[in-house]
Amino acid sequence: MSKLLLKNATAVLCDSIIRKDILIVDDKIEKIDSDISQADAKVIDCKEQLVMPGLIDAHVHFREPGMEQKACIATESKAAVLGGVTSYMEMPNTNPATTSYEQVLNKKAIAAKNSLANYAFYLGASTDNLEEIKKAPIHDIAGVKVYMGSTTGNLLLDDEHHLVQLFKNSPTIIATHCEDNTIIRHNEKKYLQDYGDNIPFVAHMAIRSRAACYKSTKLAIELALHTGAKLHVMHISTKDELALFKPYATNTIKDRQISAEACIPHLYFSDSNYDKLQGFLKCNPAVKREYDRLALCKAVNLGIITTIATDHAPHEKALKQGTIYSKVPSGIPSVQFSLLALLELFKRRELTLEDVVRSTSFNVAQRFNIKDRGQIKEGFKADLIVVSLTDKTFVSPNIIASKCGHSPFEGQCFNSKVVHTIVNGKHIVDDGKIISNECGEALYFDR
Asked: Does domain 54-368 match CATH 3.20.20.140?
């Protein structure tokens, strides 16, 4: 039996901040109380630090199998725990694409050996795997991912017949990438005619435009309303789309039929950053205007945006630093610095600490029915992080754990630090350094 005692904890919950001690026995939170004494426990003094639930990132691309030159489960889960992410849900656009339950099991086997964080995997929707989706065990997959707009990989599903059949028959939550391809192709053709190989990177937000996002998101919501499907629209990037989700914001997270996610690139960056970051800011959907960014932050506070994730998507640095727009792949690695970025938004008074906890842990567990995680609560799994709001983190290449070795945050000094990360009661990160290679567990979806 292992025991870990967090003394003098300022614990951030989804709706309050409390000052208590937290006793962890084996993999669970055993007791939350004032002045706990436990002689045989390892003690971490959390005085003047915050204790938060570990982040559950419901949107990552760890690239394994098939694209290990970009990333792999071992390296990206290391980046995750260093950043306070204790669980992740990984996307299906690997090579081969994850379009069968057997391929989900293959990924789980890799993660069981190599992942420092807890893990789950989405089943991807294609034009010919509906029967596979219908029979998938819903307690063992994160959800069904649908690419209604093209991005990295070959899982595009944008014809209405197949979409209707999928929405009618999916046994669990559908997570969508919403961009309209017809609009994107039209815009791209125009910019290629006007600029050739010299398309400026800031044009990415005009090519993958707000109209492309709005039209596709509206269609996904209409399909869900028509079929009764449970829908989670990922990486909302525009102020315009938020109005589509306002009618559902009064319902509890578990009771919502339709919900939305915002991702770190769209919450933190805006069009003013393209000039400096160039291809390193290119992602799908595109980072847009400052007023969009501010509206997304406000929507998190109001509960219109349900969850925050990263859309962590690494590519080789040589590809991202290219100067020809059309040849630079879309995707931004951010899992290691997502919490630090959100804490900067807290310090700028754009989010509250409770907003951060609610949208990165509590709501994620509620929305996806993850069993016994996402809260600082007795009986729950001990996935916890200890954060300093006074120490600083300077992002230099030598601290980037992702295999790609680059970050849009490179050169930035964050005004906070992830000090400790605890996964299933195991002390994995101590003073910002990995001290244990014990692997995480598969997430269980209580559906």
From this structure: yes
